[in-house]
């Protein structure tokens, strides 16, 4: 129902189609895909009911961090987003607390938990972890890299867009899904790092050992000489009335459904947050055929790169800056939201409410580092480093360089002489630059019949266009990465390599050769469906920011490289340098007409999702004098759910701040292992735990 097979960038998902049951009905899904994806593909968004108030529970993080998607699979409670589908599986909605299995069968065979010593352990197989593993392997250092996913690459596996940065240092100009594969191949070709997939790290202990659930079945203790934590980041959350309804999810959950599993969570989407993540997922939604009703950003301007913003403006997506979401409404799924404008102090501007009919809301509010294991290891006196988002939130290119830099330092711990700064340190400094907006007129080459028009107006650290130009005519003013690229050559071959490689889709090629002086040909990059773009078709043209210019006639549609197509238009001569893109026939531009939101009844604002604790309950205790997060936990159970307080901690600190208190003076939750659920039998070394974990016999064990 909601599974798509056609996408401009991604190939169809291949896999065996199997049957499964949800409740009493039989459905079909792809073997090995997460249970949540199989269910949402059938239009099922409510996976259970909370034990406290029977509220509907649906997908939220798709990353194993919360418990919103808990279901019973063959009798065992599991997180649907982390459990692969098998043929014949019987899935039951989880209503309240699941019943524990009856008395065990007595067939368990206990064994001693294996403990291994090794030179180096890397936690996290994203861009930082893989880059570090490759460099350590080259240095002759052996070890193990563990990751909780079946596919390595971290969030790169969900990114269909091309990345900025250095072409030399971090594969800039390539799509994230391809960079993930390149990094993994690099590590495997060197061969010194063992890659343990589906193997989450559960905790660091005082004896300097790290608990790993290898292959999701066997509990192993690893004792590394050096530990590198590259566990990535988790998404920030936001509380508002109705914000816990199914259909409201993190941006990463959306990318997992759409870009990995080819499943649409709905048809009409609204996004909260205008950083790079929010702007990028809006574009991903458009690529997949969803209608993006709008995007709200609390700041005066979007915080993401302007080229990302312009891409969705050109496709008609309304962006509401200095706006926030007020509430969401719906019975078992979000069906309407209301947003409002903010005044200069961040308060709601009276009379500015707008309501939208939607079935999906994405929260793209930034990231927090996953660094609990790093701090635990440091507290126990281990030799430990952090890299990537676990060290500092940044783009994937910076994570790759950061991983390589930490590998140089780790090599020094093993006796290798490291006297000079690594070449990646310079790249890293540039890659972490936020990019200043340029206001000067863009440089347009003169006296050439064919030339590129480069529309970068922001100092984004990026150089693919300079690297691919065969005549080296594109240069960056401030050096290798920073500055705005301009064409300074005395000739252009018209090869269009710069048009194809630009991550911001910010370059077009003007070709006046053979023209009559009244019209001109312009070639632009295209990453959307090409339905309706036949030769001879007249299409509306727009400038870089999405303003209408006129019309162009499609002359050529052809494949380029890396799934990017090239569309050549014939446009009026005087418009040749203004035309940046087109409005495709297959897309209906979203109208900005909205209706004022009606006064809704009382809707709870849930802060702690796992235990369904409201803003009012927490605020009441703060006003009574509570200043300790663990005291709040004891009184209200906040932070006692499956996420361990990772989702609600920032939200609670925000409530302290709203009450005039400094969150820095408030003690945080104490994080204790295991950091995620594990079958108790694994910790005890039960020999048949593989069958137990697979759910073939619920009587053999229970889950922690």
Description:
The protein is an alpha/beta fold. It folds into 4 domains: 1-98, Ubiquitin-like (UB roll), CATH 3.10.20.440; 114-233 and 369-430, FAD/NAD(P)-binding domain, CATH 3.50.50; 450-582, no CATH class; 610-704, no CATH class. Helix content is 21%, strand content 25%. It is built from 17 helices and 35 strands. The strands form 8 sheets. Strands 1, 2, 3, 4, 5, 6 and 7 form a 7-stranded mixed beta sheet that branches. A hairpin with an 8-residue loop joins strand 26 (474-476) and strand 27 (485-487). Helix 2 runs parallel beside helix 4, helix 2 packs parallel to helix 9 and helix 9 (396-413) packs antiparallel against helix 10 (424-431). The longest helix has 18 residues, at 396-413. It is globular. The model is unreliable at 688-704 (pLDDT under 50).
CATH architecture assignment of the largest domain: 3-Layer(bba) Sandwich
Radius of gyration from CA coordinates: 26 Å
Report the end-to-end length measured between terminal Cα atoms: 35 Å
CATH class of the largest domain: Alpha Beta
Determine the oligomeric state from the structure.
single chain
SSE class: alpha/beta
Portion in helices: 10-25%
Task: Provide the number of structural domains.
Answer: 4
Largest sheet: 7 strands, mixed
Secondary structure tally, helices:
17
SS strand fraction = 15-25%
CATH homologous superfamily (4th level) name of the largest domain: FAD/NAD(P)-binding domain
- Taken from the alpha-carbon principal axes, the silhouette is globular
Average the pLDDT over all residues and give the rounded result.
89
CATH topology of the largest domain: FAD/NAD(P)-binding domain
């Amino acid at each position: 129902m909601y599974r798509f097979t056609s996408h401009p960038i991604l190939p169809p998902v291949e896999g065996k189609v199997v049957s499964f049951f949800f409740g009493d009905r039989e459905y079909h899904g792809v073997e090995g895909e997460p249970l949540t994806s199989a269910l949402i593909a059938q239009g099922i968004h409510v996976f259970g009911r909370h034990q406290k108030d029977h509220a509907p529970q649906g997908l939220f993080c798709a990353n194993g961090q919360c418990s919103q998607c808990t279901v019973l699979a063959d009798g065992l409670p599991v997180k649907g987003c982390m459990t692969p589908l098998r043929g014949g599986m019987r899935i039951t909605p989880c209503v309240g607390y699941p019943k524990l299995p009856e008395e065990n069968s007595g067939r368990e065979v206990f064994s001693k938990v294996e403990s291994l010593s090794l030179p180096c352990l890397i936690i996290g197989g994203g861009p930082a972890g893989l880059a570090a593993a490759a460099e350590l392997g080259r240095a002759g250092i052996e070890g193990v890299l563990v990751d909780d996913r079946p596919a390595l690459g971290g969030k790169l596996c969900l990114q269909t867009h091309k990345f900025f940065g250095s072409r030399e240092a971090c594969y800039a100009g390539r799509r994230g899904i391809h960079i993930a594969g390149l990094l993994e191949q690099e590590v495997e070709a060197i061969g010194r790092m063992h890659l343990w997939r589906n193997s989450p790290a559960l905790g660091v202990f005082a004896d300097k050992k790290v608990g790993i659930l290898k292959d999701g079945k066997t509990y192993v203790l690893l004792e590394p000489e050096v530990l590198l934590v590259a566990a990535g980041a988790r998404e920030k959350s936001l509380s508002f009335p109705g914000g816990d309804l199914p259909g409201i999810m993190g941006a990463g959950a959306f990318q997992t459904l759409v870009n990995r599993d080819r499943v649409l969570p709905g048809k009409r989407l609204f996004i909260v947050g205008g950083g790079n993540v929010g702007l990028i997922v809006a574009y991903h939604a458009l690529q997949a055929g969803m209608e993006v009703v709008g995007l709200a950003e609390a700041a005066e301007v979007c915080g993401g790169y302007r080229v990302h913003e312009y891409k969705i403006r050109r496709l008609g997506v309304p962006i509401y800056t200095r706006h926030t979401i007020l509430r969401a409404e719906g019975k078992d799924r979000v069906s309407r939201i209301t947003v409002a404008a903010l005044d200069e102090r961040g308060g709601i501007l009276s009379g500015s409410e707008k309501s939208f009919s939607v079935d999906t809301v994405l929260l793209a509010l930034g990231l927090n580092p996953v660094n609990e294991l790093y701090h635990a290891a440091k507290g126990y006196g281990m030799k430990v480093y952090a890299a990537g988002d676990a060290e500092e939130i940044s783009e994937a290119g910076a994570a790759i360089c950061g991983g390589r830099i930490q590998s140089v330092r780790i090599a020094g711990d093993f006796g290798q002489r490291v006297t000079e700064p690594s070449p990646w340190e310079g790249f890293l400094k540039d890659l972490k630059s936020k990019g200043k907006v340029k206001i000067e007129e863009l440089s347009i080459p003169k006296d050439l019949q064919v030339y590129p028009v480069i529309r970068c107006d922001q100092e984004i650290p990026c150089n693919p266009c300079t690297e691919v130009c065969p005549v080296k005519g594109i240069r960056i003013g401030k050096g290798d990465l920073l500055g705005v690229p301009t064409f300074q050559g005395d000739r252009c071959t018209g090869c269009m390599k710069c048009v194809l490689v630009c991550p911001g889709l910010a370059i077009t090629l003007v070709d006046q050769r053979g023209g009559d002086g009244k019209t001109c040909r312009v070639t632009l990059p295209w990453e959307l469906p090409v339905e309706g773009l036949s030769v001879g078709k007249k299409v509306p043209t727009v400038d870089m920011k999405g303003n209408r210019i006129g019309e162009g006639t499609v002359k050529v549609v052809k494949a380029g490289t890396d799934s990017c197509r090239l569309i050549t238009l014939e446009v009026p001569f005087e418009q040749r340098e203004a035309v940046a893109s087109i409005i495709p026939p297959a897309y209906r531009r979203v109208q900005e007409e909205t209706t004022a939101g009606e006064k809704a009844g009382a809707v709870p604002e849930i802060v702690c999702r796992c235990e369904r604790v409201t803003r009012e309950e927490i605020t009441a205790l703060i006003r009574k004098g509570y200043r300790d997060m663990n005291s709040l936990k004891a009184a209200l159970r906040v932070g006692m759910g499956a996420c361990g307080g990772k989702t609600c901690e920032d939200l609670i600190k925000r409530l302290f701040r709203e009450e005039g208190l400094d969150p820095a003076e408030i003690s945080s939750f104490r994080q204790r292992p295991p950091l995620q659920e594990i079958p108790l039998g694994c910790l005890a070394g039960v020999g048949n735990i593989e069958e137990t974990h697979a759910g073939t016999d619920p009587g053999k064990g229970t889950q922690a």
